[in-house]
Automatic annotation (TrEMBL):
Keywords for this protein: Hydrolase, Protease
EC number assigned by the record: 3.4.21.53
Record GO terms (molecular function): serine-type endopeptidase activity
EC top class, as a word: hydrolase
GO biological process, one term: proteolysis
Protein name per the record: ATP-dependent Lon protease
Pfam families, per database record: LON_substr_bdg
Provenance organism: Prosthecobacter vanneervenii
Lon N-terminal domain boundaries: 1-185
Signal peptide residue numbers: none
């Protein structure tokens, strides 16, 4: 686990990372030798880590001549930290999956449509990419994933991101997301 301040990673999202600290270079080498997975833990402001994080799969890793690395981490699923196998030289957490509570698919699709309507309007320099993003998300048949992708890219309030990551009910997660998107629009 790499521990960062206020860096919330969500399932279904790519997170680019620059690995430069020695302990995280070792962590990356360990992950690449084993299951190619690690989590981005969020510091609790002291020596601890917030309890819910996203397990990430290393999709790409390029080692630079100076020993640093560029990594692309793909969020796989929410996990809850249940303990620690080791703390030094890098953390290895014991985790369990965060189980999603069931929600009616019709309700989730309606909430997905409502959230997509609240996306910020395209600007001149983002018009094509925003239109493509909206089309791609509309076509996705996994409303829960759409909620996570929207939260990762469009919610900037750190306490809201924490609540969105920790919430295991996709209906409530969408309701929180919609509230944040409405705040961003000044509704």
């Amino acid at each position: 686990m790499i521990v960062l301040d206020e860096c919330y990673h969500f399932p279904g999202c790519f997170l680019p990372l620059f690995i430069f600290e020695d302990r995280y270079r070792r962590m990356l080498d360990h992950a690449l030798r084993t299951d190619r997975m690690f989590c981005v833990g969020v510091s609790d402001g002291h020596d601890g880590v917030l309890p819910v994080v996203t397990a990430g799969l290393i999709r790409a890793s390029v080692k630079n001549p100076d020993g640093t690395s560029q990594v692309m981490l793909y969020g796989v699923c929410r996990v809850r930290i249940t303990g620690w196998e080791q703390l030094t030289p890098f953390r290895i957490a014991q985790v369990e999956p965060v189980l999603t509570q069931p929600a009616p698919i019709k309700t989730l699709r309606e909430l997905k449509a409502q959230a997509l309507e609240l996306l910020p309007p395209p600007t001149d320099d983002s018009c094509a990419s925003m239109m493509q993003l909206r089309t791609d998300l509309e076509d996705m048949d996994e409303p829960e994933s759409v909620c996570d992708i929207l939260a990762f890219h469009f919610v900037h309030n750190k306490s809201a991101l924490r609540r969105l990551l920790e919430e295991c009910c996709p209906r409530r997660r969408y309701e929180m997301l919609i509230c944040e998107l409405e705040k961003a629009q000044g509704c």
